[in-house]
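Dear colleagues,

As part of the handover before I leave the project, I'm documenting each prediction I ran so the next person doesn't have to rerun anything. This entry is a single chain, and its sequence is reproduced below.
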Amino acid sequence: MVALAGLLWVQYGNARAGPSNAEGLPQDQVIYVVKPSDTDPEIRHFDEPNYVVIKRSGSAQAQLAVFMPGTGGRPAKTMQLLTVVADQGYRVIGLEYNDFPAVVEVCPRNPSPDCSGNFRRKRIFGDATPSIVDTTRAESIVNRLAKLLEYLDRQHPEEGWRTYLSADGAPEWSRIVVSGLSQGAGMAAYIAKHLSVARVVLFSSPWDYSASSHRLAPWLVEPSATPPDRWFAEYHRRERTAAWIAQAYSALQIPADNIQVFDRDLSGAEGSRGDNPFHASTIHVPAYAPQWRVLFGASP
């Protein structure tokens, strides 16, 4: 048994994870830690563990919230946010995915206006979309999520994980909230644009754009399969790309009342993190928990 950020867990194989009993944290939360390759042997890259958080007292009818970290981030580092969301009544997954290189490292100087849209689609679905990145179907975000849900259902059939999968084995998006930070938020937004999800919650992204035209990527203004009232988002007023993010949220037609603008100062340690420290602070500063709850709401 290992202590992590005040939570107790057991590396998830044949063993069951134990409940949290750390001071100041929900007493009935259970955490499962699952390597992607354990769910599908065809997944060979980006194999840091997924983190799954549920409440023992929660309902099997709860919606599932899937959170994707930013570039270089890992689900293990998002636990403060995940436990708050789980306390809102959701089942929660911090999903590991192929996050390098980032869209904004590759596409702004690419001459094709469809670069970022194709890039994101390839990583999400692993289909035949032509892209400058090569993501197999097995390594795709959709397959990683589906295989994780199948794995959880095999290990814990009494918990109802199968209900988050459709008859053909694909994620049942109508019961799933998609969310993420930075590159992960861009992936969540792209999914919500093309599939009708229960809710989408964006943290400080996307801001896909063309450096030559100084315009947002075309996919941001395409029609959305998810209605505007299900879109929620935030960004920090002082992060470096705040203006681009605000423009993107407008292009996505997110209602103004559904957008939170964070503006807390950083501690000394937080302020020393890179050249854009406010960017990732929005999911790491515990004082933002009340705003996280507003963004996610309570699971129906």
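The radius of gyration is 18 Å. Residues 141-155 form the longest helix (15 residues).

All the best with the project,
I.
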